[in-house]
Amino acid sequence: PAGGGGFYTHQIANSVRFSGDAELADSRSGDGSTTKGTFSMWFKRSTLSDGSNDIFLMHAREDGNNHIRVLLKHDDTIEVMGETGAAVIIELETTRVFRDMTAWYHLVVLIDFTDSTAGDRCQLYINGVRETAFDVENYPDDASQVTALNTAATMFIGTNTGNANQFKGYLAEVVVIDGTRQAIGDLGVFKNGVWTPVDPSGLTFGTNGFYFEFKGSGTSANSSGMGADTSGNDHHFTVNNLTAVDQSTDTCTNNFATMNPLDNFYAAHPFAEGNTKVSTSTSTTSFSTATIGLSTGKWYFEGTVRAVMGEEGIGVSPVVSTATDDYPGKATDSVSYKGNNGNVRKSNSNAAYGNAYVNNNVIGVALNLDDNEIKFYLNGTVQNSGTAVALTAAASTPNGVYFPMVGDGSTDSVGVWEVNFGAGSFTALSSAVADGNGFGAFEYAPPSGFLAICTKNLATNG
């Protein structure tokens, strides 16, 4: 978990969460360079491709025959493709796949059709390393061929044209440079083996270039919007199907936990909203875990229950689910605070604990792995008169960690959890309280010394 203290020279504060029906779009009024340009973005996936649909990160399109696009293909490879007059002038499709939904990727495309080496005219980098193995590999013949990247074409971020083939996940620090193929070192550097961002604000962006820092939370195409261009060009993008709650502090320089869609085989829970929303299944009673396991330190997260329909449970587990009937609290050393009766289920044994909870209640979970105990809060009030539930030391559990988890012990109907590890929620918070290190935004103040689950806190307190 690199990211503590001053590890990152350039800090990226915000991202925007795309949930599958959102886009940023802008129609440029004139052409810039049609032969040279740079495209850069950081992204964190929330879903994998479904085997049939591509997922667009960027698409600049004049019409059906003139466009350039960067996308995650239906097989989870990455493709850069450009067409002019229906003729393919660029087509790079990687051999390797990109399926990590717990971490951030940095994608850079460098274009210079005037380069004397054909294979250098379009370059693709992931996390600072140039991709050289392609299943499909075609380069522009020469500078007489042009790309739509910096033309008057409409530019879409997060979708294809017209809000189709949508990206689901988080985007941060999106940069387009018009007229210059930047060096990869202008956009990132390796530090202790970790690819880290470089501040791009001093670069020359050209006529149609833009820079998204996602500082604003507004929905208008202006300097306060999520599509605000901070390059100085004021190419502010139109915001479609995004609201203020889609602005997030989950970024490549401070990666927050989310619920983990890779641990969902037995639970079969539908995930949504950047993997912060979990709907339970009517066919299983299993649970889902978070992307970060915890071994030491004091940690806090919140779960807001949006539909109490059965035996909702929230807590921690030292293992992922292994069966369709692994209801919350069944596994050895797992602990779940139950909604229907306020009991705690630990290692498959029930005990009286606190109050039952209902729709829209916020459950705070304070996990203390220094003293090996856990407490639960209901709408900010500690339960069981503050008496904690004892835990087995993380080092003595099968994986040496505890995972935050949510689930439902009933198949009667669908329950809904909204889980916040500190990067915010998809429903507006009334208070947005940070932890003692200044990270996170919670509905209720974390207990003293308890921290949001993010890599900066892990680097200093984990």
User: What is the first-to-last residue Cα distance?
Assistant: 9 Å
Oligomer: single chain
Helix content: under 10%
Radius of gyration over C-alpha positions, nearest whole angstrom = 23 Å
Shape verdict: elongated
Helical region count?
1
Sequence stretches where pLDDT stays below 50 over 5 or more residues: none
Main beta sheet: 8 strands, antiparallel
Main structural class: mainly beta
Integer average pLDDT? 92
Q: Count the E strands.
A: 32
Share of β-strand residues = 35-45%
Features:
462 residues; mainly beta; 8-stranded antiparallel sheet; elongated
Layout of strands and helices, then pairs:
Blueprint (H helix, E strand, L loop, with lengths): L14 E5 L3 E5 L8 E10 L9 E9 L2 E7 L5 E7 L2 E8 L10 E8 L9 E5 L2 E2 L3 E5 L15 E4 L10 E11 L9 E4 L2 E4 L12 E3 L25 E3 L6 E2 L22 E2 L4 E3 L7 E3 L8 E10 L4 E6 L17 E4 L5 E3 L2 E3 L10 E7 L4 E6 L2 E2 L6 E2 L12 E6 L7 E5 L34 H7 L1
Antiparallel strand pairs: 1-13, 1-18, 2-12, 2-17, 3-8, 3-13, 4-5, 4-12, 5-6, 6-7, 7-11, 8-9, 9-10, 13-16, 14-15, 19-20, 20-32, 21-31, 22-27, 22-32, 23-24, 23-31, 24-25, 25-26, 27-28, 28-29, 28-30
